Amino acid sequence: MNRKPILKGHPRSPPYEHNYNCFYCGKTDHTPKDCRNAISSAVRKAGLANLYGIAGNTNVQGEEVKKLDELSNELMINMLRSSYACSGMVSEENEEIIDVEEGKRGKYVVSFDPLDGSSNIDCLVSIGTIFGIWRKITEGPATKADFMQPGKAMVAAGYCLYGSATIVVLSTGHGVNGFMLDPSIGEFILTHPKMRVPEKGKVYSINEGYARFWSKGLTEYIHTRKFPEVSLTAV
Questions:
Q1: CB contact set of 131 (below 8 Å; sequence gap of 6+)
Q2: For residue 109, with 0-12 CB atoms within 10 Å meaning exposed, 13-18 middle and 19 or more buried, which class applies?
Q3: Percent helix, strand and coil across the chain, each rounded to 5?
């Protein structure tokens, strides 16, 4: 296990300078303000702070917004706005692009779901934040063109999972690494270097609640995973 705080010792020059901008979302008081750290704290205190339940409105997907959704969204927006690294944002909770005032605009745009799986909040199932980062390609305020770039143009992407521990899984185009929050020091520690999907395994993961919408090919493939012996016999 690497006990060094996240990103410590990494070069700041391209293509690595965005590593710092991904995680340190505000330095106006010279103290790093980490979105994931703040949301993790809110998730753990949700029951005590009366953050469970419906906020009374819906998001752009037509889903009922939870109180914790709103708080997480506000944390992401406010911290990215104060980072001086972000020029605009797209959130699942907002219909329009979220602009950053001219004096604080940076060279990146960020898209995110501030709290995915919020329907699981009340029963304490793991939930998380999903994010993607691109370099801004237009002048002035962020536009749709900045966010509609292909996946290969992404500077970084990842997710943060809030469960028994808080872990960030991040790729900046040079492999995938996992970092776990050490609450005693408030830092993310590299705990899962060079993460890869195993070539073979005994577990598959898919939302079978949507099985009726699957294509014929996907349905057949999942069947072969569930009943490999039957599939081999048929061949």
A1: 110, 111, 112, 113, 157, 158, 159, 160
A2: buried
A3: 30, 25, 45
Distance CA 156, CA 226 (A): 34
Quote the tokens at residue 182.
């050490």
Please report the domains of the chain, with CATH numbers, ordered by start residue: 17-196 (3.30.540.10), 197-235 (no CATH)
> How many helices, marked H, and strands, marked E, lie in the chain?
6, 10
CB 117 within 8 A of CB 127: yes
3-class DSSP assignment, residue 22: helix
- Whether the predicted pLDDT of 17 surpasses 90: no
Q: How many CB atoms lie within 10 A of CB 85?
A: 23
Phi, psi (degrees; rounded to nearest 5) at 219: -60, -45
Phi, psi of 59 (to 5 degrees): -95, -175
Residue 200 has φ and ψ, to the nearest 5°, of -135, 150
Average pLDDT, the chain: 78
pTM of the model: 0.71
The pLDDT, as a whole number, for residue 198 is 85
142 vs 101: CA distance, rounded Å: 11
Residue 65: its pLDDT value, please?
Answer: 54
Coil, strand or helix at 207 = coil
Check if the beta carbon of residue 34 is closer than 8 Å to that of residue 22: no
- pLDDT tens figures, 220-231: 999 988 888 765
